[in-house]
Input
Amino acid sequence: MQSPVTEIKLVAIGDVDRELIEYLSLTLPGTFGARCVLSATELNPRAAYNETRRQYHSTQLLQQLHDMAGSGCGKLLGVTDVDLFIPIFTFVFGEAQVGGSCALMSAHRLHQTFYGLPDDRALLFERVEKEATHELGHAFGLAHCPDFNCVMRFSNSVEEVDLKASDFCRLCEPKLRQMPDATLAARC
Amino acid sequence: MEPTRARILIVDDEAVVRDSLGDWFRDEGYECDTAESAKVALEKLTHGSWDIFLLDIRMPGIDGLELQRKLKEAQPDATVIIMTAYASVESAVEAMKQGAYDYIIKPFNPDDLEHTIQKAVERKQLVSENQQLRTKIDELNLLHEIVGTSAATRRLLEQVAMVSASDTTVLVRGESGTGKELIARAIHANSGRRYMPIVVVNCGALSEGVLESELFGHEKGAFTGAQYRRKGKFEMADGGTLFLDEIGDIGLKTQVDLLRVLEEKKIFRVGGNVEIPVNFRLIAATNKNLETMISEEKFREDLYYRINVFSITIPPLRERREDIPLLADHFLKKFARGMNRPLMKLSSEAKEVLTNFEWPGNVRELQNAIERAVLVCQSAKIMAEDLPLKMNHANGNAAGRSLAEIERLHIKRTLEETGWNIYRAARLLEIDRVTLYNRIKKYGFKREAIDPRAGSKAS
Ligand SMILES: [Zn+2]
Ligand SMILES: [Zn+2]
Output
């Protein structure tokens, strides 16, 4: 028996480079064996803005995404270019609920220009693909993986994002295919 | 002796700090517990033990400083790390005077936090669970990927085995597509450094200025726009292996810098004045004739001797044709498994075509040809017609067509064959993601509303 094809819906949050979202919509289906659609509704991140930190509260945005998500087996991936934070950390690349329906990622710190270096779109696309895959991987039930060659390895910096592979290791890949109900826990 | 796992106790009155930090530590592979006050922490100490304590400096009741004193009385070897806000940094310095190991400022930079904890853990000779786990992952040694029975391949395997056991610098030579990166990865995977990363830098793809900053990293404020510190590849490879591909492409200035790093084993980030020790093994690769480049003064002789300690030359595929059927079989199994296809075989005619082909693109070209054949072939047997080699011979159907038209058709077919798996298609076409994406837009290709499972066969 074949289970119905999962749907990944991409939600633009704030002002996002449309090409990044379009690119993700092309590349994610192959990775997750899922259909990918662009959401007609966008999310305004204003309510999650923190004046003092001049950043956006990641967990609040994830909650807003959650409110948007209907029932069903689909996943929602919020894609933004604003800088995300959670209270204890200076920033996060993204956040997701393990086994939940929503994931969130930011391209803000994935641009070479953020670090004062010349723009590199091929590198940006690669990083965005990795982080989108990583956060969605959480939503599909995967935890972090210690393997450097796995997209589920945690990254504390952009240097570590560059170090890891774009796809799942041979231990995570089969887990992705047959995910049991996982307990919900937020992961970056 | 098996090192023991690090145990961490977080003491903070803010629930959000306890929760997210606790999650983060458990994720990073530590055993971790939390306490909402000094009182609770001291209670926990009576029926458990911790190696590292993270104490919030400002808590109602007994504050972090006082708790530190009490902890040190109970457990003199306790490693205490103080958590503080910017406003209270002075009290953190006071805590250091009283024997705290270090302090960290809220909100934490995740990279700095990891670094601080790592240092504390190493000092106590403890490990995180992930490090233990890593040793359990039976890392693929990759030797089975070096396929063939020819004398050349056997020699290659011997050389890899021999040099893996040592820590010397290796120079891998060979035409483009012969698998220089695979050799580097195999050496790394069989070396004592295998649980640390191998960092790959393609020197040919970067301009000199970018390469310098990629390799060395930079400090905050090193140049206009550098608002954050960034670690370079030398640092990222610390403990592991640095693979510099196309080393013949680096400029003379970077050659001098590289030589200095190899000799001194320490670096300064661009704009930095703190010396950072780096310990990596270097594997360099090139398809250029470095000796000629030296005589033309394009490559430094001293650097050449530094990197050419042990040299491995991979012969082109046309010089080891006897390996082709085995290699083809190997790729066939690999791709059939990866795409969830039943066992597949090559017809004898297909084998013959493969063996007689010139393979200007070497093993990589063979691998791509087999991957395409698996994608296209509908039965369990791959026939000569399924091989995408005809176009390389006399490309009949290309006659009279413009280059753009051939490109359009080629990309369209590859997308269809891969079921629009962008990563796979880009790899087969040997272009990067952005280039492929831009072509898709340029030619107006649309992904059909198909069941992606049917197309990619990967799920
Ligand atoms: Zn993994
Ligand atoms: Zn994560």
